[in-house]
Each structure stands twice: as structure tokens, then as C-alpha cells.
Amino acid sequence: AKNQGWAVYKLYVDDGYSASSRNRPALKRLLCEAALKRFDVVLAYKIDRLSRSLKDLIDIVAELNQFDIGFKSCTELIDTTRPEGRLMFHQFGSFAQYERELIGQRTRFGMIKRLKQGLWNGIPPYGYRIKNKKLIIEPTEAKQVRKIFDWYLRRNMGVVAISRELNRLGIKPRKAERWKGTRIHKMITNPLYAGFVRWGGETAMGTHQPIITQELFDTAQKTLRERNHKTRQLRSPNYLTGLVKCGLCGAPMHVTYPGTEPKRRFKYYVCNNRYNHKSCKQ
């Protein structure tokens, strides 16, 4: 900027964010201030600092052009205020996307390789932690995992009932204040707890120690299918869902079923806040 004799209006830095995404706070601020015409040119060290996606690059530069704002790269022959610069912009943009796709391909190959080696990909789930790049059991959490499977099979509790009981006992999940039925469902259907690893729709035998037996896991999957079948048989149109609101807090209401035996079941509407968070006295 100094060599061009330009005055720097502001630096826009997205530390910790990938250039493959447009959902970056500094980029959003840049585009908002571009609409207000606070500057004349956007200067970047390299074109891939603006974005690694060719589509996003074209869209961002087109948006800047609407406000008569140019784009220039410090290390590449790109200056969209000139015809030859616009040509180079599209060429370098294609290379940036090509590099992004290569990185994605190498990442996928690495994930598949780890899967075939029986290694876990990603953040360790509840019940495990990472040590020396391998999964090891977290004893306190593993105890709760076994309890969840026990409640589901031996006590005949549903995923929502299990989440409520864990919340009542003050047992918290990771990075959340309360358990939800969806989280319990993911745990019950995760073969990792039985000694397997899964990624990209493929499953392989893991090298980690299982928390439950494969027999127990298979029984849980069979029970889940049977319960889902019974639920579909009992299901009927709920015409007022989405229409009725709670008279106390104004939250939407949905249908729920008390009891366990089909012949004893009847439907009634309950406030979402009351059902999920118990924050309503309805």
C-alpha cells in the first residue's frame, strides 16, 4: 500500500478461520463497509487469503465491483481495476480452488487410511479421550455410557426419558448444560462403544477398548428398530401441531404420549418449554 501511495483504512484479519468459507467475521465487516464505500481498493497478500473457493472469489469481487471497489494481490499480478488484472484474477482463482480440492482429497485419503487402521477420526465422543493420538476410555464417562445402555434395554426407558433422568441426577454432557434425546440416540447407535470405528459410511474394527460388548450393542439396535416400528403404527395426524400455543409462555405445543402399552396410550398437547426445559409451569 505504501509503494502505491495508498492510505490504509483498516486491516481485516480472520485468524483461526478457513479461507474456504465465507462465514468469517472480518470478511463480513469488509463487505459491509465496502457497501458504505469506506475505501477504494481491497489489498490482500495472496488471492487465496480472500477465498479458496472460485465461486466465492468471483462473487466477492463482483460484489466489490458493484461499489466501484477494486481488488489487488500483493504477490500476484492481479488488479481488477485493469483488464489484464481481471484475466489473471480468474486464472489464479482457478488454481486456488484446485489447491483446495487437493487438500480435501488428501484429507479424505488420510481419514480412510486411519479408518482402515482402526483409528478414530475427529473429536473423541463421550466416554473416551485422546492420548498419544489414540482413543482411551474415560472411566467416569464410560460408567454413564454403560448406564445409558442399561436403562435403554433393561429398564425399557426411551431416549427422552434417559436424558431427563441424567439431567435430574445432575450429570452433564460435554460442552452442554443438559442432555437431550437426540444426543442419547446418537450414543446408542454409535458402534464405537462396541469397539468399531465409522467414517464416511464405512465401518471397521477399531484398535480402542470397547465400553460395551458387541452383543449388547446389537441388542440395542434391534430394540431401537422394534420401538420405531411400534411408534409408526401408533402415529396418526396431529392436526394442531404448530398451530396451538401455550397460554402461559406463548411457546409452541406438540403432541406427546404417556404410558408404554399401546392400548393405554392417548395423545395430549404439551408446551415445548415445559417439555424440554421445565421453564414453564404449564
TrEMBL record:
GO terms for molecular function: DNA binding; DNA strand exchange activity. Residues 1-118 form the Resolvase/invertase-type recombinase catalytic domain. Residues 125-230 form the Recombinase domain. InterPro entries: DNA_bind_recomb_sf (IPR038109), DNA_bind_recombinase_dom (IPR011109), Resolv_N (IPR006119), Resolvase-like_N_sf (IPR036162), SSR_resolvase (IPR050639), Zn_ribbon_recom_dom (IPR025827). Gene3D superfamilies: Putative Large Serine Recombinase, Chain B, Domain 2, Resolvase, N-terminal catalytic domain. The lineage of its organism: unclassified sequences, metagenomes, ecological metagenomes. This is Recombinase domain-containing protein. SMART domains: Resolvase.
